Structures are given as structure tokens and as C-alpha cells.
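Justification of resources, computational component.

The compute hours requested in this renewal are based largely on the per-chain cost of generating structure records like the one below. Each record pairs the submitted sequence with a full C-alpha cell output. That output is archived, and it is also reused by downstream analysis tasks.
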Amino acid sequence: MAKLDPIVSEFATTEEAEAYDVWFRKKVQEALADPRPLIPHDEVVRQVKATIERNRKKRVVLNGYHPTPAPEAGSKVGVDQAV
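The structure output for this chain reads:
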């Protein structure tokens, strides 16, 4: 059992790395063989944003907490504007 350097690998041993590689390759093959129709990237992003917003609203209702909304993608927040 060869130990791996934690700076170089997230796995403690080569066996762990190899087992993960086998698992990961299997998952990729399953995804490639999935017969369901593809979902365009823009639609996935829209769905994820809607899910995040629903969860944010639930937190407000449950905790009475209203977090500062995240900046829009690509917007530039200056030092004087940072929260």
C-alpha cells in the first residue's frame, strides 16, 4: 500500500485513488449511456437559480433571516461596495 503525498493527492493511498478512478469512470459511462434527453445549459442554470431562491426564501420564513442577495454573475463589486 503506497502512501501518497497529501499536497499532490487527495487520497491517502494509491489503492484509494485507483478505487475512486474506477468508480468515477463507471459514473461517466453511465451518464454517457443515459437515454434521457439532454438539458441545455441555460435551462439548468435557470433551474438551479430558482432552487437557490426557493431555499433562500425558506430560510427567511424559518429563521427570520434575510441574507444579502448574491451579486449577479459577471457584476463587479468594488471595495467600497462590498458588504
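The chain has two helices and no strands. Residues 41-63 form the longest helix (23 residues).
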